[in-house]
Amino acid sequence: MRGEQPGAHALVAISIAMTLTACSRASFPAAPTAVVAPGPEMVHLEAELGSSPLDIRKRLRASGGMTVPLAPGERLSGLFDVRGSQTPYGVAVTYANGQEGANETLHVSLDGVRIRTFVDRDSGDAVEGWETFVTDPAGSASLEPGRHTIAIESEGGDGCVEIDFIRLVPIN
User: Fold this and answer.
1) Superfamily of the domain at 14-170
2) Exposure class string for 68-81: b at 16+ Cβ within 10 A, else e
């Protein structure tokens, strides 16, 4: 989140590895990054992690300064570990989508089970829309301790949506 100190959410037990496919480019697995601490806390997965050979877009207003474009049929996935006890999480996706044509359908899966399908929104016009980010709810799931996989797949639309990050927040 902007304005927060690095490690502000370090009470998360996460190992992250992203496999990204960006607008008709090949997939490249990323090296895992780890943050380990007890308890159910927010999980924040930046789309651009491990993305050095991929098509990454620099966006000044993106949380990490970059996004990963997904064209129809492409998929972004990430691995993370949850520690502690079984916890229900709400999932949200933050993205940019310029107003240029039909909107994409996004399918969100957790551990191979689809938890939500939704049509993305235009976040602005064909120019500023790529620097304006919106967040949509993307389902929920109760997660046991251990390794989990989250994935977003794009279908249809005008050609591309730019993913900024995926966030999982414990539901009280």
Assistant:
1) Galactose-binding domain-like (2.60.120.260)
2) bbbbbebebbbbbb
